[in-house]
User: Which sequence fits this backbone?
């Protein structure tokens, strides 16, 4: 089988793009922020990875739906703050 065809079988319809964007963005941002917070709170201890992943999953559970709810408001604010192309 051609490698491109394998990848195409995992592709989602375009209508899911905003949700997928929110999933990836919230996942990455919560991963970084929880990592920094955990490092500052407990340092590089033997349990760091466990605490970090626990904190990350908790943060992601909040961040993902929040991104989906806040995104339309944020788009409107950005549209008002930038000049429209003429």
Assistant:
């Amino acid at each position: 089988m051609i490698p491109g065809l394998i990848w195409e079988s995992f592709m989602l319809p375009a209508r899911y793009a905003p949700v997928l964007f929110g999933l990836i963005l919230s996942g990455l941002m919560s991963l970084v922020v929880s990592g920094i917070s955990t490092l500052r709170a407990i340092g590089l201890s033997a349990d760091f990875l466990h605490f970090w992943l626990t904190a990350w999953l908790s943060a992601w559970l909040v961040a993902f739906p929040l991104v989906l709810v806040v995104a339309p408001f944020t788009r409107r604010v950005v549209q008002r703050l930038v000049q429209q192309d003429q």
User: Anything to note?
Assistant: The chain is about 75% helix and 0% strand.
